[in-house]
Design brief:
The chain is an alpha/beta fold. It has helices at 2-11, 76-85, 111-118, 132-138, 142-156, 172-180, 203-209, 214-220, 236-260, 283-295, 321-338, 354-360, 371-384, 386-403, 434-442, 444-449, 460-469, 471-491, and strands at 22-23, 29-31, 34-40, 45-50, 60-64, 67-72, 99-103, 124-126, 128-131, 164-169, 185-189, 225-227, 230-232, 269-273, 302-304, 341-344, 365-369.
Length: 493
């Protein structure tokens, strides 16, 4: 790579007005006779292309030594050209790999830091991963998400491959939108079709609620199923609960698969999420869902059950770890039985579980994170701009009640140290406090979108300017924090 950079810079030496303050050295790449790189401009990065193919990018064009040189903004149109010329900047399906890891970058700034982690580990990253809710709260589009990942890997020279996940999608039109842009994974959220009232029903009520078809009785009753030494067995009432809780979700998942994925219609992986509910998925329910989908011709790449205990946002696991391990062992065996990977959602910061997950999945997992990357960005703010952080923290407290409507958390604001009791140097320590973490975690949309009476953003522009200035600090924090996730996962196997 160094000789390419030297040739490129030599070719353009002495040309004034071409380069900004900094060319990112790992971003210099060559295709045919054309060099392409990223450089830092005044307020944002921009693309520089020189050679016969340069005019495929849309920007300002000048002739240098008889060849076009184009300085182009990082638009979706130019991102499409980049993905065509340099295939490593285009997402690919990655769930067929033994290990994969989702990285929800809500700000479009995290890929350089994330890429450093995955230079060290063989798990395949999904750099582009967002839900529609996240897009709404951050005022982004899937085009923005895809571009952030593509330009990010180009910037740091990460060529190993990455995925793009349309995360927790519920509507066919949203799935179609993500797939049309080249997203290589869809996480179908079936929570709207899962009943949460069944667990509170007595056995007598369950018996009255549904009549089992003869084929289901024949399929599941009277013959326990042995999977890797674990027994999955169904009583009649348990089978009826499976039908009541998951019957409609199974039909919905099968319909989506038939519409978008069957016979490899889409070059994308298919994940089913049944975790965004109040109903924990028992091993027998997991088996029932997977088996029924298999019989309907659905090929899952991953499935995310709702584990026992609580996987709250941005903090460690809350619950009985021994029970979790016992059930995880069976869930992982069921996933292997049906030929897909177990997916761990809300996987951010579950440090007490990662080694167990690595162990019982035998290193064959998909772990999904999101909000923890935002928290690291806010930790940068606390460390580098204390006054800005104090203002944001106070605003977050005022909006906590509203934000709580969207997330299940057990935050106790009284357990968060008062700001006036902390020195500036102590502010980053708030991110070791679970209640403070959840406060900042769930209010991200309010923080980014807060406007004054004139319609101007109160925090957003100042935040992005700071994050741009402190890009290396953010990269370092992500490298350490996400690296800790991977280190513990790999320790298990």
């Amino acid at each position: 790579m160094s000789h390419i950079r030297e040739d490129f810079l030599k070719e353009l030496s002495g040309i004034e007005g071409v380069f900004g303050s900094h060319v990112y050295p790992k971003s210099i790449h060559q295709v045919e006779d054309t060099w392409v790189c990223l450089q830092a401009a005044q307020n944002q990065d921009e693309l520089v292309a020189y050679g016969r193919l340069a005019t495929q990018f849309k920007g300002t064009t000048i002739l240098v030594k008889g060849l076009p040189l184009v300085i182009a903004p990082l638009t979706f149109e130019n991102g499409q050209v980049l993905r065509r010329l340099f295939p490593f900047t285009k997402p690919v399906p990655v769930l067929q790999q033994r290990r994969s890891f989702g990285l929800g970058d809500r700000l479009g700034l995290a890929t350089p830091g994330h890429a450093r982690v995955f230079e060290q580990y063989d798990a395949y990253p999904i750099f582009a991963q967002q839900s529609i809710r996240e897009l709404t709260l951050t005022h982004r589009t899937y085009e923005d998400v895809l571009d952030a990942a593509s330009f990010g890997v180009f910037k740091v020279g990460f060529t190993r491959g990455f995925g793009a996940d349309g995360d927790h999608l519920k509507k066919p039109e949203d799935i179609k939108y993500a797939l049309s842009l080249g997203f290589t994974m869809i996480t179908l959220d079936a929570s709207d079709y899962i009943r949460n009232d069944i667990n509170s029903m007595s056995d007598a009520q369950v018996h009255q609620e549904v009549t089992l078809e003869a084929v289901l009785k024949q399929r599941y009753l009277g013959h326990p199923i042995l999977i890797e030494g674990s027994v999955v067995a169904f009583s009649e009432v348990e089978l009826k609960r499976c039908v009541l809780v998951y019957g409609k979700a199974i039909e919905f998942a099968a319909h989506i698969y038939q519409t978008f994925f069957i016979e490899q219609k889409a070059n994308a992986n298919f994940e089913l999420s049944i975790d965004e509910t109040a109903t924990p998925t028992t091993p027998s329910q997991h088996y029932f869902v997977s088996n029924e989908l298999k019989l309907k011709g659905v090929k899952l790449d991953t499935l995310a059950p709702r584990f026992c205990g609580e996987f709250q946002k941005g903090i460690d696991y809350v619950g009985d770890i021994k029970q979790f391990e016992a059930e995880l062992q069976i869930h992982a065996a069921i996933a292997r039985h049906f030929g897909y990977k177990l997916s761990i959602h809300s996987g951010s910061d579950k440090f007490s579980l990662f080694t167990l997950i690595g162990k019982h999945t035998q290193g064959h997992f998909h772990v999904k994170t999101a909000g923890t990357n935002w928290l690291e960005a806010m930790r940068v703010v606390a460390a580098k701009s204390p006054q800005l952080y104090r203002a944001i923290h106070a605003y977050a407290i005022s909006m906590f009640g509203e934000a709580q409507k969207f997330y299940h958390v057990t935050t106790d604001l009284n357990k968060i140290p008062k700001l006036n009791s902390l020195t500036d140097e102590e502010l980053p320590n708030l991110f070791h406090n679970n209640d403070a973490r959840q406060l900042i975690h769930i209010t991200y949309g309010f923080i980014l979108n807060h406007q004054d009476a004139s319609g101007h953003f109160v925090f957003r522009n100042e935040l992005f300017a700071l994050w741009r200035k402190e890009a290396s600090t953010y990269s370092d924090m992500l490298y350490a924090h996400i690296g800790k996730h991977l280190e513990l996962l790999y320790k298990g196997f």
